[in-house]
Design goal:
This protein is 40% helix and 24% strand. It is of the alpha/beta class and 308 residues long. The protein folds into 3 domains: 3-67, Winged helix-like DNA-binding domain superfamily/Winged helix DNA-binding domain (Arc Repressor Mutant, subunit A, Orthogonal Bundle), CATH 1.10.10; 87-153 and 271-297, D-Maltodextrin-Binding Protein, domain 2, CATH 3.40.190; 165-260, Periplasmic binding protein-like II (D-Maltodextrin-Binding Protein, domain 2). Strand 9, helix 8 (197-208) and strand 10 form a beta-alpha-beta unit. Helix 1 crosses helix 2 (18-25), helix 1 crosses helix 3 (29-43) and helix 1 crosses helix 4.
Length: 308
């Protein structure tokens, strides 16, 4: 078995088709198919299910994908590990962040570039479950995200608790007033799909209060969620208390929900593969940066978790 074959297989799974993967790895599609056929013959199992819509891994292929992605990630990190052994952080760090945290991280990359000129940071945003999956597959080294329940086997450092706010195009309550959960349940709501962690938390909170939320639209990304609210399809519930970065009149001032609903912001990384020196440097800088931001007044609803 060759590393090249594993790399090809990982790219095919991620691309979802041989043709797209061939354009990524820059080899002809028949040659790519031959490499996979040799890999399947060596392992004695089918790795891919082929259809008119593309390919997806079999059960065995899914296991191989996860293990191969982790191995290749470690292999790709080796040059940076060796070079940074001299003490200066060097190499590539794949950093993930929850989309709703983007406003709070403005300026962080500039600080990293100034502090670690030999470190290249690749960023990836998304919902928390997607980012945790990317950490498990080693395509992301560490991530900062919101969690409700700590159920995945990852190494994590909880940073702060964040209250959730009702976000709307027009004011729902007078400025600086809170909105009751009963009132929120009666409003038309735009929320993420059922697999999203924030949606799962909200469903549980409403169920415990014996309320049924009026969900009029499910959005598959934060961008589409905010676009729908901006166009008055409905309101949403977010861990964001300041929307001034969208412009002075894009949204009404977010309203705190009573009783409060919390998500926990954590820095998460793999429990199986240690971070490189560069990864540790970025993680420590991120922790310091976020702690400083939380102590300021532009992150309403954030409560730092005290270390014991």
């Amino acid at each position: 078995m060759q590393f090249r074959q594993l790399r090809y297989f990982v790219k095919i799974v991620e691309a979802g088709s041989f043709s797209r993967a061939a354009s990524v790895v820059h080899i002809a599609q028949p040659a790519l198919s031959q490499q996979v056929a040799e890999l399947e013959e060596r392992l004695g199992v089918a790795l891919l299910q082929r259809s008119a819509r593309g390919v997806r891994p079999t059960a065995a292929g899914d296991i191989l994908y996860k293990e191969a992605a982790a191995i290749l990630h470690q292999l790709d990190q080796l040059p940076g590990v060796v070079r940074s052994s001299t003490g200066e952080a060097e190499g590539t760090v794949n950093l993930g962040f929850a989309s709703s945290l983007a406003p709070a991280l403005v300026g962080f990359l500039d600080e990293c570039r100034a502090a670690f000129p030999k470190v290249v940071i690749r960023v990836s945003d998304g919902d928390s479950l997607t980012l945790e999956s990317k950490i498990a597959s080693a395509s992301v080294d560490l991530a900062i995200l919101y969690e409700d329940a700590f159920v995945t086997a990852l190494a994590r450092k909880p940073l702060f608790r964040q209250k959730l706010f009702l976000v709307s195009r027009q004011p729902i309550v007078d400025q600086d007033k809170v909105v009751s959960l009963e009132r929120v349940a009666a409003l038309p709501l735009v929320l993420p799909g059922a697999s999203n962690g924030r949606r799962a938390l909200l469903e549980r909170v409403f169920a415990e209060a014996k309320l049924t939320p009026n969900v009029v639209l499910e959005a598959d990304s934060l961008i589409s969620e905010m676009w729908s609210v901006r166009n008055e399809v409905g309101c949403t519930i977010l861990p964001i208390g300041d929307l001034s970065n969208f412009g002075p009149n894009a949204f009404a001032k977010p309203a705190l929900i009573e009783p409060p609903i919390y998500l926990t912001c954590s820095i998460v990384c793999s429990a199986d593969f240690p971070l490189t020196n560069a990864g540790e440097a970025v993680r420590d800088t991120l922790l310091t940066f976020v702690k400083r931001r939380v102590s300021e007044t532009d992150m309403p609803g954030a409560e730092w978790i005290q270390e014991h």
